[in-house]
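Hi C.,

You asked whether I'd gotten around to modeling the 305-residue construct. I have! Everything is below, sequence then structure, no commentary in between.
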Amino acid sequence: MQWQRPGSKPPSPSEPYIVCEDLFKIHKVADLEVVALRGLDLRVDRGEVMAIVGPSGSGKSTLLHILAGYDLPSAGRVAVDGKNLLKMSQGDLVEYRRHGIGYVWQQVSRNLIDYLTTRQNVEMPMLLAATQKDERRKRATELIEFVGLAHRIDTTVDKLSGGEQQRVDIATSLANNPPLLLADEPTGELDNKTSQEILDLLRQVNRTYSATVVIVTHDPHVAKQVDRVVAISDGKTSTEVVRRTPFMRPGVAEEVDEELSIVDATGRLQVPKEMLEKLGAGERVRVTMEEDRVVLRSERRWTKR
């Protein structure tokens, strides 16, 4: 199975780059069953930079592991670039993990070998993919320069700072030129200044290499700097925020965030807590249909009229 770079073949007009439909994931712990994902739906367009947010235990990392092919859902469908991951053979999954995705870990030790140099670490995925030595050397040098570590190319990873190690991790994840980059809490162990530098670098990855970038985070600062934010609650998508820049007047642009609630297959949706508080709603709200919109009103305010 060959994994194509974005743009090397026309994308399907009917399907986004990533599609998750009604995903369930159940972990068995001793005699207990823990439901990590429960009917999750997700769409990601080719070339997006998007974040998945939610509290600890909400299913964010489980979802990322499934997208990476490290784990499989208990039920549902997940497709990347039109390929159903659940129907892949073990050999195809290995090829997908090697060439179809790059994975940036919060704990860089999962991607890096601390006694090897920066160059040796970046070359390692290409070595495993049987890339020719000259090509490995050229690609590694290019990526190390891209992440701003040319002066550390022959330094062992254990001599680098946390931010520098994260940069090497990003370069290593890009070694085999994957069309999809997955980042699990990439700024979780960094200070604010270094976190911003890593975020800027991930956006640069998107622009330079045309990679689709999906970031899992609990950091609201990260979530404000991506194109779209999808919130996961209790193992399923609850809301999403789309960031766009409409032109209000010629030459004047204003960034607007639009928050969307996700309607599940049964017609249920979660209304953001802040909106309910502002509405003054209790446990029940009055729902009415007005032409092209559904309106929620506080039952208490309605009955006072």
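If it helps when you're writing up: Residues 271-305 form one domain.

Thanks,
B.
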